[in-house]
């Protein structure tokens, strides 16, 4: 049993380039078609999340689709490139997989720690849980991408090719369901906020001043509120990612 069509998600980071190289290798073995997908998020990351992503890995190229096409020519494989804008990334990958009728999805995994996954979520995990076809995850460092890194530098020096972006289509029913889900998360966050505000109020000033690991309990409540807000936001995004398929 072979593969006819392979979808690989590209973001310009080492892990995704390794996934692309593996996709090309498999395509050459089975004579399969490769679809390279780049998803640009239309919701900007929080400053803390940008710092965390920068800490995780270093961007190799800002033009991964151009690199994919050039590498495909060198390997004798035709690469179909698709660029989409939207959120969540996992949902768009799954949606594209169904639209293109692929029988294999290949993703790169950046080896995030458990805490980083809690904040940023795991696209590969969400895709694996909801995909209707096999999913292969390539860890950073599994593939030698030195040739792709060299090619990326050459591509960056050339004029950028225009790739038509596919805008997301919003289903009113999906929006309604997601609105209900977001309302539930907002209610949870409101309860957490009310608890933190109550602790900080005058009647509970003694409890608020009680120190834990050198910090007043009120400060810990505030930090917990911030973390809860980010975590609930990411839970929402991952949930929508599964439903978007």
UniProtKB/TrEMBL annotation:
InterPro entries: Rossmann-like_a/b/a_fold, Universal_stress_UspA, UspA. Signal peptide: none annotated. It comes from Desulfurobacterium atlanticum. Residues 3-139 form the UspA domain. SUPFAM superfamilies: Adenine nucleotide alpha hydrolases-like. The chain crosses the membrane at residues 181-200, 212-237. Coiled coil: none annotated. Belongs to the universal stress protein A family. It comes from the Bacteria. This is Nucleotide-binding universal stress protein, UspA family. Keywords: Membrane, Transmembrane, Transmembrane helix. PANTHER family: STRESS RESPONSE PROTEIN NHAX, UNIVERSAL STRESS PROTEIN UP12.
């Amino acid at each position: 049993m072979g593969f006819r069509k392979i979808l690989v998600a590209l973001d310009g980071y080492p892990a995704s380039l390794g996934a692309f190289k593996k996709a090309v290798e498999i395509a050459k073995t089975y004579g399969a078609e490769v679809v390279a997908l780049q998803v640009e998020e239309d919701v900007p990351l929080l400053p803390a999340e940008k710092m965390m992503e920068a800490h995780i890995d270093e961007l190799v190229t800002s033009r991964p689709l151009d690199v994919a096409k050039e590498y495909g020519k060198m390997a004798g494989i035709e690469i179909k490139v698709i660029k989409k804008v939207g959120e969540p990334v996992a949902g768009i990958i799954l949606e594209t997989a169904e639209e293109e009728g692929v029988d294999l999805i290949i993703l790169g995994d950046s080896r995030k720690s458990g805490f980083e996954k809690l904040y940023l979520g795991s696209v590969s995990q969400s895709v694996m849980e909801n995909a209707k076809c096999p999913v292969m995850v390539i860890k950073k460092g599994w593939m030698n991408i030195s040739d792709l890194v060299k090619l990326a530098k050459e591509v960056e020096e050339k004029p950028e090719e225009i790739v038509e972006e596919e805008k997301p289509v919003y289903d009113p029913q999906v929006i309604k369901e997601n609105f209900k889900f977001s309302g539930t998360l907002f209610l949870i966050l409101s309860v957490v906020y009310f608890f933190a505000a109550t602790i900080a109020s005058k009647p509970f000033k003694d409890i608020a001043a009680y120190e834990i690991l050198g910090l007043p309990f009120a400060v810990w409540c505030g930090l917990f509120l911030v973390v809860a807000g980010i975590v609930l936001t990411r839970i929402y995004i991952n949930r929508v990612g599964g439903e978007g398929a």
